Amino acid sequence: MSEPILELRGINKSFGPVHVLHDVDFTVRAGEVTALVGDNGAGKSTLVKCIAGIYPTDSGEVLFNGEQTHIHGPKEASNLGIEVVYQDLALCDNLDIVQNMFLGRERGRAGLLDESDMEQAARKTLTSLSVRTVKSVRTPVASLSGGQRQTVAIAKAVLWDSKVVLLDEPTAALGVAQTRQVLDLVRRLAEQGLGVVLISHNMNDVFEVADRIATLYLGRMAAELPTKDVTHSQVVELITAGRSGDLGIARPENAVV
Amino acid sequence: MTTRSESTVDIANGDVEPTRRSLWQRVSGSNTVWIALVLVALIVVFSIARPDAFLTLFTAQTLLIEAAVLLVLGVGMTFVIITSGIDLSVGSVLIFAGVMAAKTMEGLSPRSDSTGAGWGVILVGLLVALVSGGAWGLVNGLLIARAKIPPLIVTLGSFGAALGAAQLITDGSDVRTVPKALARTLGSGTSLGVVPNLVILAVLITVVGDLVLRTTRFGRYTYAIGSNEEAARRAGIAVTRHLVTVYLMVGVLAGLAGFMSLAYFRTTTISGHSTDNLNVIAAVVLGGTSLFGGMGSIIGTVIGIFIPAVLTKGFVILHVQAFWQPIAVSAVLVAAVWFDQVRRRARDQS
Predict the structure, then answer these.
(1) Per its UniProt record, what InterPro entries does this chain match (chain A) (predicted)?
(2) pTM of the predicted protein model
(3) Which of B99, B143, B217, B255 could covalently link to B166 via disulfide, CB atoms 3.0 to 4.6 Å apart?
């Protein structure tokens, strides 16, 4: 088992009177896909936004590469090498693949753009991810399919020498073949040594690519287990009830709240 | 790994060179080319009809001069429309800047007659024109980007306010003294024998605008914001600051256009620019810049400026009633926008 690259300890987060995250521990390991599952409202998105620096945490520790850090904003998160691919992808339809991948971080001197350098780097990244489904890196994003857009969004995230990539429901709107492609891509990211966090509602996807499964239940980390040690139905029980047999949160009468 | 039906090319291998689409594909896919063909066709028709009158140096010179002021406004407007904004105030800001410049130059001259003023006074006048144009642009930009008021409303407001302010300053009557030195050089002078100086200035602005839009980060961000503002924000682009800068730039360019107009007409022409905003917007849209943002080019705007100008000239020469010109331009404009929407729909479905 590899060293944790990102480690969260005892994270708490409230929005006014609503306590969304309770003492959440969460670990991301380099070279592994960690699935983050949980029902609607369990706190998955909040946890991701805390990692991405969009929400400040109320208490708890964040360790990156074993060193304690504080992530105060999206810029700091990306400086550390943490990238998030949101569900709505946030691509510019009128711009082409290269322009989207480098958006906000264009290469070139004195405000001038170095198009050929960016094009080469974009191609190199896509090649390293074995992406073979786009005709040209100069295709406008508007004319790409859903799976290709997802691919571009993920490639954009790994272009920056990222260490941790968080993917929010990357297969939610995709067909069978495209889901296949994206899952292959997720696997390859981990093989390249990145820590990958996959948020998904789809148990098949989770069991297919994840090395570990972390289950949130009403803002608490119910269990964080290797995929091979749990079954499909156990995970579903963890999601819906917060526990399954010996796993998960202790019964309410024993719990220390 | 794939069961996709669409053709896939291995981009890793260099054996297929897919990156540059064929010239024809790129050319036929853009509105700009079709609209350029319309312009060429118009020129050819008028040239054949009256070769003696249309294909003359004088016609070319006046055509270019009349387009010069609109072109300067059009460069700024292209940036604004690409961000999916709009600026209705350019004509009024032009007048305001011209009035401010003219009044300042008069104030710095003996007996409020700036006819004999020297270059020092003229430069101060230019500076005043740019600053007063820029001030309106800054106000527009801050209200749009910070206060998040729709650009249509903000610039409709400044459209009225800038004109009103110009009339307040002048009591509604045009300033009639303009430095001779300015009128003779920038206003009606020529360089290289035949090229009007006004046109040289407009071309310079256009070339710089085109380079900024196509080859710089500033231009790229302009497209990105118009395409998907939220994505631009998440990519770390300072969207608010960028929008303020774009509107500021339009204001400064309108100020420059006001100064050019002052030099050419030798008066402030307060009542002569009430439809400049619509003419410029029509030209920009005609040139293939999408009102939905994210798409457009300066070269398209140049063509879009010249279609109405050529039509007007041609109708005058052919003794067609000049009132046909707005009808013809409007028809082309509506057709161009319709074309753009059909194209977008086709693209989004693919």
Answers:
(1) AAA+_ATPase, ABC_carbohydrate_import_ATPase, ABC_transporter-like_ATP-bd, P-loop_NTPase
(2) 0.84
(3) B99
Q: With a cut of 50, which residues of chain A have pLDDT below it?
A: 257
Task: Inspect the interface and report whether the beta carbons of A93 and B227 lie closer than 8 Å.
Answer: yes
The domains of chain A, with CATH numbers, are 4-248 (3.40.50.300)
Question: How many domains does the structure of chain B reveal?
Answer: 1
Helix, strand, or coil here: B314?
helix
Burial class (CB in 10 A: 0-12, 13-18, 19+), B254: buried
The verdict on residue B196 lying in a domain is yes
| Residue numbers in A near B346 (CB within 8 A) | none
Residue B1 domain-assigned (yes or no): no
Query: What's the longest Cα–Cα distance across chain A?
Result: 65
pLDDT at B15 over 50: no
> Is B2 a domain residue?
no
Of the candidates A124, A54, A60, the one whose C-alpha atom is nearest the C-alpha of residue A84 is: A54
pLDDT tens column, A131-165 = 777 778 888 898 888 888 888 888 888 887 789 99
Nearest to B254 by CA among B124, B138, B85, B107: B138
What pLDDT does B168 receive? 94
For every residue of B53-70, DSSP letters joined together read HHSSHHHHHHHHHHHHHH
Best mutation target, A89, A92, A183, to test chain B (most B CBs within 10 A): A92
Measure CB to CB from residue A113 to each of B216, B227, B294 and give the nearest one.
B216
Q: Which residues of A touch B295 (CB under 8 A)?
A: 94
Cβ pair B217:A106 closer than 8 A? yes
